[in-house]
Amino acid sequence: MAGIVEIRFPEDQQEGTEATVTRWLVAEGDDVAAHDPVVEIETDKVVIEVAAPEAGRIADIKIRQDEEANPGDVLCTLNTGVEPSAAPVTEGETDVETADSPAKAKATGGQSKHDQLSPAVRQRALQHDLDISDIAGSGRDGRITLQDVEALIADKEKQPKAEKPSTNISPPAVEGSETIETIAHDKMRKRIADKMVASLMHTAPHVTAVFEADLSAVLRHRAANKQSYASAGTPLTLTAYFVAAAVAAIHKVPRVNSRWFDDHLEIYHHVNMGIGTALGDQGLIVPVLHQVQNMGLRGIAAGLTDLVGRARDNKLKPADVRGGTFTISNHGVSGSLFATPIIINQPQSAILGVGKIEKRIKIKEVDGEDVMIVRPMCYVSLTIDHRVVDAYQTNAFLAELVSTLENWS
């Protein structure tokens, strides 16, 4: 039915973080088809495209680029009672719209399609060092889409890699020279910074306890089962064991799986496990594995493979980063023994840190005598919101976690 339709920021597309309109893909007066993306909104976790629900003409843009948007806000209005416009072609002109035409300038703000790359497209191209200047975009008005970039990546991976000549020649040092590289903060980095400062300095009193775990039993189990998991297409990572052990510890101490309010505490009986995932220089994201309490080790391993893979490929959906109740930061994968404090992912009440696994000499009593033995050890830490959890619960959680890992069978 013809009329004015409001295009809103969907209510279910954001949780606990600010969102900003980063790019309008249309201008007022532009015709769009049903399901055409019209605007990109960025949070510190994902980039969201909002599409037109039906065909029509963009009537009024309500929230401009770089302005904040909240769930339910009207982003723009769509007039569905108009026919698509067609510019008349005069003698001597072609019906092919050029990049310098008024209509094109209106739609793009005077920019080419390559100046309108979405943050997701820019990040993906940067990750793979792609030259996208010659891509014919398949999106509206020739806009380069993420699918176009993925196709280019697939073509690039099929091509044989040229060997680079090795050289041991270092560039000559220039005496007395100084260079400074300046990198502007992107929106994701700014929001990560704001959340970290707010969590540590303004919201929760952080306290960290550290235990040590012997992973001999876990490594034996992994060695015996790694091949069968891989044959089924599911890599068996050590993180899967820590997720399963954390669930066991949460059952022992449910308060760590909770959220603080000024007048009450919410303790969750389901466990939605956030997994801190580094994106290189692009920052950190925490995708969420939902309902982990109902999964066995195989289900956890499969879920982690899918979730972390999509996080690093920039393919997460808003639902993949919502609803976390507890988080694991496996900082040991990058070599650190322990980190403290690991900042709590608010509004959660605790975060588990896992350090690097290394062989260390331990003293064990055997037949009444102290014996030095070598064991694969790692430090595990629990950083808690001291408003919610005290030392007793913190130590009980870590004791259960370590016991689960050391007695794995």
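Next protein, fold it too.
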Amino acid sequence: MPRFFSRLTSACTLLLACAAVSLPATAEMDSDTRSLVEAAMAGEHRSAANRARDEFRKPLETLEFLGLDAGMTVVEIWPGGGWYSEILAPVLREKGRFYAAQYDLNGPFGYQRRGLGAFLTKAGTAPDIYRDMVITEFEVPYKIDIAPRGSVDMILTFRNVHNLVMEYNGGGRWADLTFQVMFDTLKPGGILGVVDHEWDDVENEDPLSANGYISRARTIAFAEKAGFELAGESEILHNPRDTKDHPAGVWTLPPSYAKGDEDRAKYEAIGESDRFLLKFVKPAG
């Protein structure tokens, strides 16, 4: 399946890219939701290190593109340490509902336990922010009740699809089930928003995503197989400085700095990875 955008600089390709970014038109975020997002981003419950990531992750622009409303019921899949949950929980606290579909409490991998531990500590130290958040466990194929079936307006997952196809997850064995669970959890007309580290060429990508990158074409194929329709793509998270040939994969870049101080200034100058942003819809009919 060919990639929707090309990095080539021909006039024809640029026109196609512009058309893709603007299709379909995204409704402007209502003023109340915008104010809540901005207040959450500036909140004292967020560390300076996490606020520094706003430059690359563009949470306001991302959530506006996806159509977030403060009255929605929203699930975040595998929030890890909760970077986005810091914003979503207070935005949805009064009028909406927020489910954090976390790792299994007994997850076998260190990063899962570290992320879950950091997340629970965060929730416990800022109870006013997280008091109405519902934490569920998501571990396919055994724990898939992330929220009541057919009850959710929006599901968000940030930098997680590549994990589904990595060797430790069976090389994609449960990827189809994961997207099916998200499809079934959404209401008709519900939205799925996906962000991940982008590999440009589906023809030469690592099928196990050992470098942390995955193509948008492959991601779209997973979603469409589950029944989703692609509703929009955005380039707001594109980083042309990311060469994608790093010695420790995407984790070489900030904020992970997997190589420690080795060439740190070089990777700091690149910034966070090149990422795609996709919006899918569960058909209403």
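About the second fold: The CA atoms of residues 119 and 221 lie 31 Å apart.
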